[in-house]
Amino acid sequence: MDGFTEVLHNTGIYNLTWPGAVMVGLCLGLLYLAIARRFEPLLLLPIGFGGLLANVPVAEISGPEGFLGILYATGVSNGLFPLLIFVGVGALTDFGPLLANPRTALLGAAAQFGIFATLLGALALSEQTGLVEFSLQDAAAIGIIGGADGPTAIFLAGRLAPDLLGAIAVAAYSYMALVPIIQPPIMRLLTTSAERGIAMTQLRPVSRLERILFPLVVFGLCFLLLPDATPLVGALMFGNLLSVSGVTDRLAQTASHELINVVTILLGLSVGSKLAAHTFLKWETLGILGLGLIAFCIGTASGVLLAKLMNAVSRRPINPLIGAAGVSAVPMAARVVNRVGQEARPTNLLLMHAMGPNVAGVLGSAVAAGVLLALVS
């Protein structure tokens, strides 16, 4: 009987607590969104399964010596995995639309306004309600959700607020996945049917020399003006240079396929390790999810409103919808812009025009992360 009792006391049934059961249900929900609804499946599926592993009773899989704990220490706490993801993203990114219409970079910058507005909101929520306690570092990590850039959010949270990493990562990728649901109502609210139907002229061809010089110039400016952003920006520009140089096709292929796929698996499982019940089920988590949604909405609205302002002072009108693509959910935000534009005018082709602010948003969120690191770390 003593042996039987000892075995019973080491089963998952005996040791599963109600918070653990809640987290198992939440992680199964993430798997449902990834598999059945196809919401960011490449990340939500590993994160959801990593969360299941993290909530296995007794096994301590997410502890310092556990499988997930080792992965987290290897690539998330030191920022390695997000940087490798950025190398792959750079190899996949075409900055041609941005180079063909440089003023769209302003729209990518405007969309980052949600980051800093939410930072202030997080501090105000902490001071006014008393339910949560967000430090300045916590607020900065939460605000970056507004950039809709998962690797950047993970990189910054790992540096500034590792205890909040799970909630921040889930919020960032969830809102990225919900772009087709969240953005269209905001875009329609802030624009008229006539504005949504504005047609844009074809983009000019971009030379190979421009494409090669762009990552070097961007890295040089970051090197001189904002060194704290160089890890993210440098990884992005290195990956892009592999692609556009024309002499490293094998490396570009590896970065954009094998490397990014392997690191995505490891990153997702590592983030899932932070979905253990004792670290996730807190009032702070609800605050992060709410503030993340506000940040995303403000970022979308800021891009659209700046596009409308640019039309008021420019002779060449742009469709204000493309401002919504300034959040760096590439390329989903650009596709949503194209779809909403075609609702107003079926012949409207805004996809390539929206890619300009879209890729500018990737740069903008990386720069914003560098600014926050410089200011609050």
The total count of helices amounts to 21
The count of β-strands is: 0
Domain count: the total is 1
Percent helix: over 70%
H/E topology pattern: HHHHHHHHHHHHHHHHHHHHH
Question: How many whole angstroms does the radius of gyration measure?
Answer: 22 Å
Secondary-structure class = mainly alpha
What would your notes on this structure say?
By secondary structure, this protein is an all-alpha fold. It has one domain (about 1-375). About 70% of the residues lie in helices and about 0% in strands. The protein is built from 21 helices and no strands. The chain has helices at about 1-10, 10-15, 20-35, 40-55, 65-75, 80-90, 95-100, 105-110, 115-130, 135-145, 150-160, 165-175, 180-190, 195, 210-225, 230-245, 250-270, 275-280, 285-315, 330-345, 350-375. Helix 11 (about 150-160) runs antiparallel to helix 12 (about 165-175) and helix 13 packs across helix 20. It is globular. The relative contact order is 0.19. The model has no long low-confidence stretch (mean pLDDT about 90).
Please write out the topology.
Elements: H1 2-9, H2 12-15, H3 18-35, H4 41-54, H5 67-75, H6 80-92, H7 96-100, H8 105-110, H9 113-129, H10 136-143, H11 150-160, H12 165-177, H13 179-190, H14 193-196, H15 208-225, H16 230-244, H17 249-272, H18 277-280, H19 283-313, H20 332-344, H21 351-376
Helix pairs in contact: 3-4, 4-17, 5-17, 6-11, 6-16, 6-17, 9-10, 9-19, 10-11, 11-12, 11-21, 12-19, 13-19, 13-20, 15-16, 16-17, 16-21, 20-21
